[in-house]
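Full entry
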Amino acid sequence: MIVAALLAALAVITLIFVVQLIRTALARGQATPLPEGLAIGAVANFFDTLGIGSFAPTTAYVKLRKLVPDSFLPAILNTGHALPTIVQAFVFINLVRVDPILLIACIGAAVAGAALGAPIVVKLPVRFVQGFVGVALLIAAGLYAMSNLGLAPAGGDALALGGPLFIVAIVAHFFMGALMTFGIGLYAPSLILLSLFGLNPTAAFPIMMGACAFLMPVSGLQFMKTERIDLRLVLGMSIGGIPAVLLAAFVVKSLPLETLRWGVVVVVFYAAFLLLYAALRPPKATPANVAP
């Protein structure tokens, strides 16, 4: 009953998000999806469903291709990957068992964090966004490396958490939700934290996917109100990502991903360097600030 109500609420949020996305894209003349966005959505969300994550690879590709200004990245990530992530949540919340109270509590905390974080991000200076996302990419690359080296916690057999661990998990997901709006993916830190607490890693999937499925459209609605977004890219990623999620979840299900993760580590480190360099380099001289 609790899970059914949760999925019904997600369906309502999804409908609101889709209607607003289409209305905003039409109003701005950006209703034609970018073909490159279709490819990004398909590849990133295919591997996202298998546990690779979508934020870091997408950030690296968008940065290397210079598809949008760096300040657009948080909006592109949260809004463009929202619908594919919602599909993931519907699949995994239905298929994987986990304590529904823990599931709802972590989702609610993450959404609250995102609602707090999104209005802040859109007002931040470009250099701050570049620096923050650059650091986020370094963290993501480190987590990928930890996973490949077997340093990430293996997890236990629990399907629920109690006492202090339950409270810590909720608080942690509040901050993870806020950081999502800055472009820091929630999947890896959520999976590592819950596994460290003894939760079955498989049971962490509906929690992390459910949290993102609720918070991403919530933050996406905020990002759509700003000019720091390219809705052509967002639409492409959304359309390309949904069938890729279904393919990964129901057809492929698993792949040997270690080699791919090492490739992602290299690319993500390079993209992080570019962002941090852009954030830290001196501003270009203009006629207004050049000494006579």
